[in-house]
């Protein structure tokens, strides 16, 4: 069987549709809210109350939350007492095919929206860097061990 495929030109990227630039290292993630203040701190506190649906460990302690940002939103068409901020939450899942993706992202969104100053929450799923067990906090490891898992 012969191949009619041509070799790519020397120096060409392996895939023309993929960006191979280096991103953040796994050590840069996840975040735990350490040092957060004000509304951002309140969002982190709300996220600590969200447990993974399969085990009693918070999504923060599992290392699923990569970042939390609070940004102002246009309140022109809203009442003066309406919340005027959006929470943007960058998170990952333990693997990209997680069957609880919709449930988990909805729980995170709803938790952030319980903060009185938050009008809306946006969830941005990230898979880079990929989640790994080293991202679990010490509290998360303790909870996983109590649950019967070896970490």
UniProtKB/TrEMBL annotation:
It comes from the Archaea. Residues 40-123 form the MIP18 family-like domain. Residues 1-33 are annotated as: Disordered. InterPro entries: Fe-S_Maturation_MIP18 (IPR052339), FSCA_dom_sf (IPR034904), MIP18-like (IPR002744). This is Metal-sulfur cluster assembly factor.
């Amino acid at each position: 069987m012969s191949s009619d495929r041509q070799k790519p030109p020397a120096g060409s990227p392996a895939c023309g549709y993929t960006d191979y630039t280096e991103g953040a290292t796994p050590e840069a993630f996840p975040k735990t809210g350490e040092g957060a203040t004000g509304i951002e701190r309140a969002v982190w506190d709300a996220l600590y109350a969200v447990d993974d649906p399969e085990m009693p460990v918070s999504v923060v302690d599992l290392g699923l939350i990569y970042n939390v940002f609070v940004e102002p939103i246009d309140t022109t068409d809203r009442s003066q007492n309406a919340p005027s901020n959006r929470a943007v939450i960058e998170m990952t899942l333990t693997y990209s095919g997680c069957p609880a993706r919709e449930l988990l992202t909805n729980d995170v969104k709803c938790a952030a929206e319980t903060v009185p100053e938050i009008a809306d929450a946006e969830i941005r799923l990230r898979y880079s860097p990929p989640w790994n067990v080293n991202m679990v906090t010490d509290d998360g490891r303790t909870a996983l061990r109590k649950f019967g898992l070896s970490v």
